[in-house]
Amino acid sequence: MSKIRLLLADDHAVVRSGLRMLLDSQPDMEIVGEAATGREALELVRNLRPDVVLMDIQMPDLNGIESAESIRKTHPDTAVLALTMHEDDQYFFEMLRVGASGYVPKRAAPDELLTAIRAVSEGGAYMYPSLAMRLLQDYVQRVDAGDEPLIHDDLTPREREVLVLIAEGMSNAEIAEQLVISVKTVDRHRENIMSKLNLHSRIDLVKYAIRKGLIDLNE
Description:
Strand content: 5-15%
Structural class: alpha/beta
CATH superfamily of the largest domain: Response regulator
Shape: globular
Radius of gyration: 17 Å
Strand order of the largest sheet: 2-1-3-4-5-6
Low-confidence stretches: none
């Protein structure tokens, strides 16, 4: 089984050292590089092609939001997981907007971070529960203001089922096994879902499912 290849992007050496102690102890993870600036992170992603970048938001040269946006545009197979002390809405929604696959505050328990890394490395998404709840609250506010319909009726029952399983972090192979269909059929359903909803990535699908209340944030 191949290990999850990680890049640590944080301008504080002590933070990177603490992360290295935690992650080096995981048999399914390996740290392939460390970056102290946003531009250094971009260069290392280009050279090392990590599976996941743990990205702080406050970084020299380029901040984490700018770096994440560039990484997602140039290396879409590399997931960006925000790991930051900032929990306010501005940074949270901006990181999601540019394509981050997850958002974890630095106060989170180590097990939360490990769970998040494994989820995003498999193409899933992870948001700290209190932050995920903000997505739901944001959706409710927009529904109340008439800015978004309450439900989307264009999806077939099977497409809604696939959407929920994607949002719960399951891989295409796992979805195929659970629904007793082929992986190609899962791919086709996902393409149809994204086309109908005008979404462009797995994290967009997750955010949509959360806003629509299709997944339980408390589970």
